[in-house]
Amino acid sequence: MSKPTEKELIELFKKGHQQDYVFNILVDEYKVRLYWHIRKILVNHEDTDDILQNTFIKAWKGLDNFREDSNLFTWLYRIATNEALSFLRQKKRANLLPWSGVEKNLSETLESDEYFNGDAIQLKLQKAIFTLPEKQKIVFNMKYFDEMKYEDMSEILKTSVGALKASYHHAVKKIEKYMNEN
Amino acid sequence: MSNQKRNMSSNKQNTFSLKDFKTDQSFKVPEGYFEAFPERLQERIKASERPTEKKVLKINFIPRLTIAASFAGLMFVAYTGIKFIVSNQNSKSDSGISLVADLSDYSVDELDETMLYDAYMETSETNNSVNQTENSSSDAMIDYLILEDADIEVLMQEL
């Protein structure tokens, strides 16, 4: 028996057939990729775990209204990105921090994180990424680490391919400058 | 010259470039995290569905309570206000001047012309009857004095 396609799984879910089972297949398919996408934004494992669960809960509640002409993968990435950014903004508001304060906070979190095992240069690279503006950081992570296509990124971030290319180019220049000067 | 070239080449070698830098995954996750994740997620989904029912109840219930409390508050304010105004009016009406003024205002407002005329006629008749009584009593007095053969000066005083 062949493995059901994503479209078939979504149809089954919408009909209410074995929703738990169907949803678990989708979770297994995307949990690792989404985890690393969120982790690169939030750094901390506990925060990432919380936001990953929120992402899937939103997907569970919204899957009934999911339009089949959209791509499930980009839809899930969009939810995850929005959830992670909302979390960071809430944190910023709660601690009355400017964006630079959040960046400093993330650097400190990284240094004391028991789940970070990078060497000195990897730590420096992460710190360089934290200096980027919010959206530029996400573009850089998606392109450099996840090697995502610009077309998919465009759908997830609702930004033109040209703007994404420019954003990535600027991000690379800033990071290289940081790495060379610090 | 050869030194300069060497320096430039060593600078180039030291320059960091992301193209040449291949980073391994520097983050890690607790052991067995991904394997246990679906089960924990299912628990969270079930837990998130339960409070939703409570929330619906709250949504329906809380505005009703708020409306009832607001209404009670409004009634209290209205009652207190009315009570205050009435007590003020009573203290005013205790003074005689205002009572007379109020009564005269009331009479003028309430009586029409016919009623005023009737009231006037009634008063005139009463006055006439008082005069008639007075006249009849002086006649009787004169008759009495004549009968008693009183002094002419006393009689003249009565006339």
Explain this structure to me?
Chain A folds into two domains: 1-102, RNA polymerase sigma factor, region 2, helix turn helix motif (Rna Polymerase Sigma Factor, Chain: A); 118-182, Orthogonal Bundle (Arc Repressor Mutant, subunit A), CATH 1.10.10.10. Chain A has nine helices and no strands. Chain A has helices spanning 6-15, 19-42, 45-62, 72-94, 99-111, 120-130, 134-145, 150-157, 161-181. The termini of chain A are far apart. Chain B is an all-alpha fold and 159 residues long. Chain B folds into two domains: 31-95; 102-159. The longest helix of chain B has 61 residues, at 33-93. Residues 1-11 and 95-104 of chain B have low confidence and may be disordered. Helices cover 82% and strands 0% of the residues of chain B. Chain B starts with a helix and ends with a helix. The A-B interface holds A 20, 24, 27-28, 31-32, 35-36, 39-40, 45, 49, 52-53, 56-57, 60, 113, 115-119, 121-123, 125-126, 144-145, 172, 175-176, 179-180 and B 15-18, 21, 23-30, 33-34, 37-38, 40-42, 44-45, 48.
